[in-house]
Protein 1
Amino acid sequence: MLSEKMNEALNVQLNKEIYSAYLYMSMSAYSSYIGLDGFANWFMIQYQEEMTHAMKIYDYINDHGNQVKLMKIPQPPTTFDSALDMFEKTLEHEKFVTNSINELVDLAIEEKDHATYTFLQWYVSEQIEEESNDNEILSKLKLMGNDGSGMYMLNKELSQRVFVPEYTSKALSGSQNQTDNKSQ
Ligand code: OFO
C-alpha cells in the first residue's frame, strides 16, 4: 500500500499527465487548422506519449491496492500565436512537469518509499528527453525565423515522427482482468 499522502500526490500527477495529453491534443488540432500537418502529427504523438505516462501511474496506483481518483481536467489554450509560440509553451509546460516529478521524488525520499522512488526514476529520465527534444525543435524554429522554406522542411521532418510505446498499460491491454480472473 502507498501512504495516503503519496497516493494523493500520484493522483495529482496522473491528472497533470492527462492535462499534458489534452494540451498537446489542442496544439495538434490548432496545427491542423493552420495547415501545419507535420506539427499536428508531432503533437498528436506527444498526446499519445502523455497518455502512456498517465496510464503508467494509473497501473502503479492500482498495483498497490490504492484507489485511482480522477479529477477535473482544466481546459487547455485553444489558439496560439505561431508554431514558435506552441513550442515555447510546450517547453514551459515540460519544465513545470519536471518540477512536479522532482517534488514527487522528494516526497518518496521523505517517506522512505523505495518502490515509488524507483518507479519515478523512469519519469526523471523521460523529462530530460522531453525537454531536450523541445529545445532542439525550438532552436530550429528560432534559427529559421520567417523563412518559409525552413518551416516547410521542419513541418516535413515532424511529419515523420511515429509513436513508439515505451509502456503498455495493463489496464488497457486487458492483462489486469486476466489477473483478476485468476484470483477469483
Ligand atoms: Fe511530457 O512528460 Fe509527461 O507530462
Note: The helical segments are 4-33, 37-63, 83-110, 114-144, 148-158, 170-173, 175-182.
Protein 2
Amino acid sequence: MCIFCDIVEGKIPSTKVYEDESVIAIRDLNPQAPVHVLVIPRKHFDNIVDMAHNDDGAYSAAVVDAIAEVAKIEGIEDGFRVINNCGEDGGQSVMHVHFHVLGGAKLGEKIL
Ligand code: AMP
C-alpha cells in the first residue's frame, strides 16, 4: 500500500494545486512554509534514483515543468525552494518519489 498512489487514484482526499497526465501537485498536510506543495509523479517510483533508472526521461521532465507551473500558480516564481528527500538517510518518509516546493516567505537555511 502506498499513500501517494492512493492520493493519485483519488482514494485518499487531497488539495490539488495542479495536475496533468504525468503528475499531480497537492498541498502538504503539514506545511513547513506559507506555500508547501508536493509534486508527485502519477507513476509509482520509490525514490528519485528509481525514477532516474526506470523513466525514459518523460517523468523527470514533467516534474520540472510542474514545479515551474506550481510556482506560477502560487505566485512564488521570484523565489522558492525545491527539496527531494531520498531514502531513509535522506529523511524520506513516504516511499513514492515527490518534490517539496516551498515558498511564500524568506526561507531559513534548514526547514526540512
Ligand atoms: P518526505 O518526508 O520527504 O517523504 O515527505 C513526505 C511529506 O508528505 C511530508 O511533508 C508529509 O507532511 C506529507 N504528507 C503525508 N501524508 C500526506 C497526505 N495525506 N496529504 C498531503 N501530504 C501528506
Note: Residues 3, 12, 14, 26, 28-30, 38, 85, 91-94 surround adenosine monophosphate (CB under 6 Å).
Protein 3
Amino acid sequence: MDKISLPVIAVNFKTYPQATGEKAVLLAQACEKVANEYDFSVVVAPQIADVYRVSKAVDIPVFSQHMDSGEPGRFTGHVLGEALVEAGCSGTLLNHSENRMQLADIEMSLRKAEKLGLYTIVCTNNPLVSVAAASLNPSAVAVEPPELIGSGISVSQSQPEIITGTVDKIRAVNKDVVILCGAGISTGEDVKAAIELGSQGVLLASAVAKSDKPEAILRDLADPIRK
Ligand code: G3P
C-alpha cells in the first residue's frame, strides 16, 4: 500500500445498522476528522451500496467489502471492479471470514484489482491461509482468527503468538506485503500491541462501527501510535 501511509487503521462497517446508509456517511466523516488530526491512515469499508455516497463525502480511502473477478457483461449480481472504481473506491477487502472466496477467485480478483489500480486487503483465518494469500501478492494481508471477530477480545493481546508466528511465515514468502491484524481490537493498547508484534496496522469493525462515540474510540485507538 505505497500511497496509503502506514500505520493504517481500516474500519469495516460490515452490515451494522449504525453504519448503514446516511449513517455510513456520518461514520466515515468521523473517521476522516480523526485521521486529519493524526499521522496515520484511516481506511473505511462501508457496504457496497453505500460506497458511492461515502466516497462523495470524504477524502480518506474508501474500500469495498468485497470484489468479484468478473468482467463487464454477463455477470448478474457480481461486484464489478470497474464499477467500484467509478463509485470512488480506492481498494477492496477480499475473502473476509464473513464472505469467503475460493483461492482461484481470490487470485483472479487480485490481478483484476491490480489492473484497475485498486488496493487489496486479503483477510485470512489462520497462518497457512495467510501464507497462501501473501504468496498471491496482494497489497495487504489481514490476519483475523474468526473466533475472536466481534468478541471484544483482542487478538493482539489474547493470542500474540498467532500474530508473531504468522508474520514470520508471511515474511518467508513475501517481504513487502503489508500485514494487518484484526479481531476484537477495541483499545489503543490493542493497537499498540498489534504494531509491536510486527503488523503495520489493524482491521477492525465493532469497536468503532457500533459505537455511539466513534470519534472518541478512534482517538483512543490511535493515541499510542501517535508519532
Ligand atoms: O473486518 C474486521 C473484523 O472482522 C473484526 O471485527 O468487530 O472484531 O473488530 P471486530
Note: Strands lie at 8-12, 41-45, 63-64, 91-94, 119-124, 140-143, 178-182, 201-204.
Protein 4
Amino acid sequence: MVFRKFPGVSASGMGLRLSQKFVFLLFLSGLVTLCLGALFFLPDSARLKRIFLSKTEAQPVTVGSENDAREQARKADAAAARVRALSRKLNLKAHFCLLQMMKFAWDNYKHYAWGKNELRPLTRNGHIGTMFGGLRGASIIDSLDTLYIMDLLEEYEEAKDWVENNLDLNSNGESSLFEVNIRYVGGLLSAYYLTGNEVFKKKVLELGEKLLPAFNTPTGIPRGVINLGSGTSWSWGWASAGSSILAEFGTLHLEFVHLSELSNNPVFREKVMNIRKLLNKIEKPHGLYPNFLSPVTGNWVQHHVSLGGLGDSFYEYLIKSYLMSDKTDEEAKKMYYSALEAIEANLVQQSPGGLTYLAEWRGGILDHKMGHLACFAGGMLGIGAEDGAPEKKQRYLDLAGEITHTCHESYTPTKLGPEAFRFDAGAEATATRLSERYYILRPEVIESYMYMWRLTHDPKYREWGWEAVEALEKHCRVEGGYSGIRDVYASAVSHDNMQQSFFLSETLKYLYLLFSDDDLLPLQDWVFNTEAHPLPIIHRNCLQRQNSLQKPDKTPIDGKSVAI
Ligand code: DMJ
C-alpha cells in the first residue's frame, strides 16, 4: 500500500494516527446506529417512523386507513348483527319465560282455586271477594284471550269448557258494573272475536242484558253497583252524595258498542251515547272532568280531577272509541283532544329533578302525586299522538315518552313500583307514605312500555320490560303462584297473598306483546279494553274499499259483480 506523504508526519506516525481515527469513526458510527435503532423500539415509535419514512413509503398507511375504515364498518355491522341476534334471543327467552309464567300462574289457580275468582298463592286457596256479586271464575274469563294468544291451547280449552258448563249468570249479590263490564264482558267479547266460538257470544249477550237495569236513573248515568239477579242498583256507600264515578260510567263505551254490533240491538249503544251526550253538555271546570257525578241531577258532586283512580279509563275510552270506530267517531275525538288540552294546561307538571308527571287537581289546588294507575297515560298519549293537531303530534308523543320515563323512575329499588308516588318535599317519583308502598301486580307501567315500543321501537322499552320480568320472578313468585308485595322499598319482601286476575289478563299479556312482533294483534286492527282484552276495530269502509277496486264506471275489475 502506498501512503501519500503529508508534510511533517512520518510514515509510521501517520499509520498510528490513521488507525486511531479509524477506531474512533467506527465507534462513532456504531453509536449513531445504536441510537437510531433504539428509537424504533421506543413505545411511541410509530410517530418517529412516520417522520423517517419517505412519502412513498408512507402511502400504504393511507390505503391502510381505508382498509381500517372498511374493517371498522364490517366490525360495526357484525356487532349490530350480534345485537340483533341477542335481542332475538332475548325475545325468544322472554317469550319462553312469559309462557312459563302464565302457565305457572294458571296451573296454580287451577290446582288451588278453580272456579273461584282469584288465587291466594300463600294459603293456596281461592278468593271470591265482593266485586263480582255472585259471578265466579274471574281469573278464567280474564285468562281466555291471553292463553289463546300465547298458544296455550290445552289451558284455553279448559277455560272454554268451564265457561260453557259452569259460568252461571243467574247470580245474586253486589257486583260492580265497571268490574263486571271490563273483565267479564270484555273477556268474553275478546274470546268470541279471537276464536269465533258461539258459546262466548251467547254468554256475553246474556250478561249484557243483565247490566241494563243499572242505567235506570233520572239521567241515564248508571249507578256503580248492581244485583244481576234482581236488577236493583245503587251507588257505592263511599261515593259522596250517592254519586257515580267518572272512571266507572265512562268505561263502558267500547264493550257496549260491540254488544250492539253482535246483537243487532241498538240499546247498548244508546245507553253509552246518552252518557256521552250528558258529559258533552255539562259545564266543565277549566275544561276538566271531575270524578264524581250525581246520577239524579247530572251535576258534578266534587271538584276532584285525576288521571289515576276514579278518572283514568274515562280518558282512555275517549281516544279508544275514536280508534275503534275506524276514526269515524268525531265526537269522541273532539272530546279527547279538548280534555287533553285541559290536562296539559292544568295537570302536567315538571319536578325540580326534571321529571314530567300528572298531578291531581282539587278545586284548583294541585296535589303533586301520581298513582300507579295513572301510568297507563304514557300509552294513551302515545296512541293518540298521531291524530292530534299537526303542531301537537310530536308534543304528545314526547309527553307519552316523558310520562313513561317517570313511571319507570318510580320502579326502584326492587324494580317494582309503589301504588302512588310523589313530587313534593324533595320526593322525586317516590312513595312518601307507608300506606302507598305496595305493588299488587298492576300492569299500567308495562302497558305503557308495550305501546311505546310499538310506536317508537326504542329498545329501552324492552329493556325496562325485561327488568320487570326479572323483578316479578324475584319478588312476586312464590311456591303457589304470584303474589303482590306490601312494600316495594323493603329488602325482605312481604307478600299480600293475592294473585289478581288482571295479572293474567293484563300484566303478562302486555309483557308478551312487548316481546312479540307488531303483527300479533296489530294496533291498526285492535284496541285493548282497559283490562287488556282486544276488541276489533269496526271497519265501516269495506264498501269504499270494494268500490276502489272498481273501474271509474263502477264496473268491477274482473268484469264480475262484487259480492258484498
Ligand atoms: C284493571 O282492572 C284495569 O286496568 C282498570 O282500568 C284499572 N285497574 C286494574 C289494574 O290495575
Note: The pocket of 1-deoxymannojirimycin is lined by residues 313, 373, 442-443, 502, 506, 530-531 (CB under 6 Å).
